Amino acid sequence: MTIRALFFGHYRDIVSSGERELTLDVPATVADAAAALAASEPRLADLLSRTRVAVGADFATAETPLKDGDELAFLPPMSGG
Amino acid sequence: MVLLTTEPLQPQQAVEAVMTDSDGAYVQFVGVVRDHSKGRSVTGLEYQVYAPMAVAQLEKLVAEVKARWGLACAILHRYGFIPVGETAVVVCVASSHRAEAFDACRWAIDTLKADVPIWKKEFCPDGTFWIEGDEAITAQ
C-alpha cells in the first residue's frame, strides 16, 4: 500500500519536503512507516521514535494500523499561540 | 467559532462571535509578536500549520469549553509571516460572570499551545529558529 507522510517544523527541513509517499507491506502500522522513513533518513531516526503522530488529521499512536491512501503526519512539539 | 487565516486578525470579530445579551463579561487573550525571545532579538515569526488538523483541534477546544464551562469560545489564529507588533492569536470567552471566563480562557490558550498542530519559526538577525516546545532549532 501507499501512504502519504507529512512533515512539519524542522522535520520538513531535514526531509527537504513537506511530504513523501511511502510504499509499505500490508499490514502496516505507524511504527512500520516510521521505521521505513528512519531507514531512508537517518537524521529522522531518533526523532521519529519520540514524535507525536496523526493519521487522517487525528492523533494516533505507534500501533495505529494504516490503510492505503492514509495521510500520516509527524508532529514535532507544537508552538502555536 | 474558529478561524485560521493568513490575514491580519480582528479581535473584535471574536467578541462579536461569542457575546449574547445574557453575558456580563468576556475575557479575551490576544497574543502579539514581540521583539525578543529568550535573549534573542526577534524581527518576526512565521507560523506553519497542519491546517485540517489545526482547525479540527481548535473546534475541539471550543467544544470542550462549552462542555466543561457551558461557555461560548472563539479562537482566531493567524499563520504565515507575522511582523513584530501584530496579533498572532485571539481567544475569547463570554460568560455571565468573570471567574469561569478567566479559567476557560486560560485553559484554551494553554491547551492550544500544547495540542494544536501549529509551529513557529523565529526570524532573528543571526538566523531563523524553529521553536518546538521549549527548544529552538536552527532552521534551514
From TrEMBL, chain A:
Domain of life: Bacteria
GO molecular function, one term: nucleotide binding
InterPro entries on file: Beta-grasp_dom_sf, MOCS2A, Mopterin_synth/thiamin_S_b, ThiS/MoaD-like
Record-linked CDD domains: Ubl_MoaD (cd00754)
Keywords from the named record: Nucleotide-binding
Any one of the GO BP annotations: Mo-molybdopterin cofactor biosynthetic process
GO cellular component: molybdopterin adenylyltransferase complex
Any Pfam family matching the protein: ThiS
Family the UniProt entry places it in: Belongs to the MoaD family.
Protein name as catalogued: Molybdopterin synthase sulfur carrier subunit
Organism: Armatimonas rosea
From TrEMBL, chain B:
Annotated Pfam families: MoaE
GO terms (BP aspect): Mo-molybdopterin cofactor biosynthetic process
MF (Gene Ontology): molybdopterin synthase activity
Protein name, per record: Molybdopterin synthase catalytic subunit
Superkingdom of this protein's organism: Bacteria
EC numbers for this chain: 2.8.1.12
Keyword terms of this UniProt record: Transferase
Stretches of the chain forming a coiled coil according to its record: none
Source organism (scientific name): Armatimonas rosea
